[in-house]
Amino acid sequence: MKDFKSDIIHCLKQKDWNKAMKRLKEWEADGSHNEPDFYFLQASLSVYLGHDHNAWLWLWRGLDLFPDNGSLNLLMGKVCLRTGREQESATYLQKGDGAETESALKLDLPVDEKTEPPAGQIRVLQGTMEIANQMNTLAKGLSQHGALAHTLNYYPYYLNYAADYTWSLLKERNTPVMNTRLRRLASDLLPSYDLFHFHFGTSFTLDMSDYPILKQAGKPMIMHHWGSDVRLYSTLAKTNPYAVVKTKNEARIRYHLKRISQYVQHCIVADMELYEYVKNYYEHVHMIPTMIQLDRYIPDYRSNEKPLIVHAPTSPGIKGTRHILKAVESLKEKYDFHFHLVRGVSHEQAKKIYQKADLIIDQLHIGSYGLFAVESMAMGKPVICWISDFMKDHYPSELPLIRANPDNITEVIENVLKNRDMLPEIGQKGRKYAEVHHDMVKNSKKTLAVYQSLLSG
């Protein structure tokens, strides 16, 4: 344990952030980390990296377990001043008085300046599951429109999406003890935000027991549904002959929708497919398309001499990956092309692969398109995707996706390979479509309008 601590302090003093992060993870995995210094050093690393809100969360977690620790209290008091929590700061500073001279953890932390958030801003916290970078993207867009927007992520997967607050609950169970801690967190975050925007049927707690707390405090809430959290096979199959869903327990989905909508009256979905699942539960359903930061996606219409086809099977069953692989194996007997299956890499690494593709295959079962297709179109890449007749009627007529399903995927890919000269034009239309319908700046403004209507009501 002492080796971990001294190594981490040395790394922080040498500004070797990556090694400090690695050693902190090793300390946690070792199981000997449950002491105040672990939380202090995690918070210190966050401060050095400029992640003040995440430092606040690490200190909050430490103080929830060790409320009288002087070093944690002192640093928390200073971090509160940097995160607009001036009223809370004084109590922590008083409890931490003298800890700086007594502490063995001598670090020169840049925490003595005070930060004042601009007056009049709408303060929004999104959480607690990042879906395809949408929380982070929306927060960026909202900030461009003058809102103070932060994100809290409990489920940091390998894709490495950014968040203001991160607390990995991937290995935590839905227990009374855990939910009691998370209710305390919800109560302590309440004063810092005007509105709470939840995603994928989540909330601060694992059992939804925080909803009454937020409602009693008069804080507006919005739920943003994304797909498998609400998708009902019985509904999807009515309009989609190739329907496949991730969650087959419809009673559980309906129970969650009914329970959430007891406390949350406003819901956001991306399109009519998702609207069909939630329309009978929420008082207000707002349709706002998914969004991306367009300047992070540079279109490239160049063709490879040997075509590169790319597929990313994040959910192989839903994506129809087995049909795609079967089609690819069949076509390789007649055509010369590369095929890349993208999995287990970060979002940024995946984007570099997509950028080189001639053709991208999304999914063959859902009947609507998601973020993968949007990102691909923004990069100027033609996309094969199953769009049901129902959704085709509800999408803008200029949607340039190449439609395919499990029955005809081989023929569709073959037609593309035979007619490669059509791909640049499809790619250009895709980029234009993304600019018109999926721009972060435009769609975050629509979301802000929903917030303003809730706060003024």
TrEMBL record:
Gene Ontology molecular function: any one: glycosyltransferase activity
Protein name: Glycosyltransferase
PANTHER family: GLYCOSYLTRANSFERASE WBBK-RELATED
Keyword Transferase belongs to the record: yes
InterPro entries for the chain: Glyco_trans_1 (IPR001296), TPR-like_helical_dom_sf (IPR011990)
Top-rank taxon: Bacteria
GO biological process terms on file: lipopolysaccharide biosynthetic process
Keywords: Transferase
SUPFAM superfamilies noted in UniProt: TPR-like, UDP-Glycosyltransferase/glycogen phosphorylase
Organism of origin: Bacillus haynesii
Glycosyl transferase family domain segment(s): 329-432
CDD domains: GT4_PimA-like
